[in-house]
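Student:
Attend to each token:
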Amino acid sequence: MMRLLGVTTCAAVLFTNAAALPAQATFDRGRFDRLLAAHVTEGRVDYAAFAVSRDFTGYLGALSAVDPVRLEQGERLAFWINAYNAFTIELINRNQERRSIRKISRPWGVEFIRIGGRTLSLDDIEHEIIRKEFREPRIHFALVCAAKGCPPLRREAYTGALLERQLDDQAMTFLTRTPAKNRVDVARGTAWLSPIFKFRDYERDFGGSREAIGRFVAGYFRRAGMRAEAELLERGRFALKYTDYDWSLNGTDNE
């Protein structure tokens, strides 16, 4: 009994000390910010430049040393989005792949990412951490899987302070400014949307039905001044079809 009491007391002290640890307000992503500005142009990535960058290697090391639990919620989501995008670039380069991420064996399932004492895969970051913890549908326009069919990679890192604006801008750009991926044909009563809306179980992140997806997309079309398109989607009386998804690498032309 005395031994059990001692263990219980020790556990209580450890819990109290852990709870007393102050939250880390932010994570310095300045290096990634500069790298993205220098090596990403209109969503196209200079993978060769990232491959030889000591700053990029240093940034990956800094990510691995962080305990994201100590970050505040907005900063924590920004951290994980940046980590996903950075380690996707690293995955492409460590495999020296210049055609398509799908040429890599189990690209989203291989556990090669070390963060906060855990070894993770890209799928772990997206599905077990980001989607489960944050329940934010716009992350699908921020996580970039190294394919031309993906939303474009931003030329800046995500930050907690700017996250709302950044996610909103990503959604607006992808949904209303890339007609090859997303468009609404009012005359034919048809919405042509990216397969992102049907991959895996992503549909549920946007409400779980064709009508819910329509309402989600309509908000962006209305704000973009596309009133007729928005009204069609809001009424729910539209056919939903999917555009082709280009899995070729989102690299620069000189690679």
Summary: The first strand starts at residue 40 and ends at 41. Residues 26-179 form one domain.
